[in-house]
């Protein structure tokens, strides 16, 4: 009577092997006509591979072999997909058209909308944005540019070990998403490239960004209205404008930002380190429960900054009081050097002062001299060693 059980236990590993290998189907984009020559338009082939993976009732892998694949603007829709486990495994490089106008008005280059359970793993996305940046630097009638990789209204997303180069606009954007993990990202664009934010998150919850390296011309990570439950750890930023919550408070009715942890980050030669910025206009927006912990600042212009009268162009600034209420923000173990004398610049709103701002173990120097702190409309506490002093 022991036999059936024994047989079963012997057969079980084989059964699992059989089931797991049989339950994923691989779709190679080359089988759908994609050409790794960098000049044949492979957009249709990628969309066909997506349609096949999406129609599969089993989990599916879309495989992109080595080589360069030219893609125009492409939208990958998930609302009719029959499975919620599609992996896009990339060994090659996806290249945007060299003429920036081809995707420059599309808003996004590679857009995923209403997908559930999509993993993108490996590979390089080359946005070829340099000619658009040059256009913007010299003319006024240039297209706005496309975000390289955007997810809208999507859930359960993983992006790992992906490289994004020279995006026209933002590199990666999440809007209206739940539960996303981005890991081992490498993002790179020139320090002077306009609006090339590394990762932009808004209206999204449960987003984790780990172990990533971001060098760009705007914010390394920007966090917009309605972002909550974010965890950012082990990120190096620079060049760039730092890790920013904002800009917030342009709209009167605006969802707030809450529960954000930014931990173990390094900023090198950036314009800002840890920044919160809001427009000086009435708004019911807010920022609360933010922990900035263990940051190294290397030659950063404003390592710790709250700017509630943000207006980068200094043109037609609203010049009212910001309505965005900022509370419960902790800066813990923030060390290093600033490249301007004011290393802590906390300028809160007259109409809606900041509260619960905590500085704990902060040591910032201005080259080899003491730095300064400047604060307005702020309540909170300092504890442990805090230099520069004088704010809280
Ligand atoms: C805050 O966000 C973290 C993820 O970063 C999450 O684990 C935690 O549950 C959130 N806390 C609350 C109270 O929602
Ligand atoms: C952060 O990086 C350190 C050193 O590379 C590593 O030991 C640690 O596991 C990383 N943590 C996370 C959450 O990625």
Structural shape: elongated
Q: How many domain modules?
A: 2
Q: From the alpha carbons, calculate the radius of gyration and give it in angstroms.
A: 23 Å
Class of secondary structure makeup: mainly beta
Q: Identify the bound ligands.
A: 2-acetamido-2-deoxy-beta-D-glucopyranose
Description:
By secondary structure, the protein is mainly β. It has two domains: 179 residues, Single-stranded right-handed beta-helix, Pectin lyase-like (Pectate Lyase C-like, 3 Solenoid), CATH 2.160.20.10; 174 residues, Single-stranded right-handed beta-helix, Pectin lyase-like (Pectate Lyase C-like), CATH 2.160.20. The strands form two sheets. It has a 20-stranded mixed beta sheet that branches. An eleven-stranded parallel beta sheet has the order 5-8-11-14-17-19-21-23-25-27-30. A hairpin with a 2-residue loop joins strand 28 and strand 29. The N terminus is likely disordered. Bound molecules: 2-acetamido-2-deoxy-beta-D-glucopyranose (2 copies). The site of one 2-acetamido-2-deoxy-beta-D-glucopyranose (NAG) has 5 residues, from strand 20 and strand 22. Pfam families: Glyco_hydro_28. One of its GO terms (molecular function) is polygalacturonase activity.
Compose a concise summary of this entry.
The chain has 392 residues and is mainly β. It contains four helices and 31 strands. The strands form two sheets. It has a 20-stranded mixed sheet that branches. An eleven-stranded parallel sheet has the order 5-8-11-14-17-19-21-23-25-27-30.
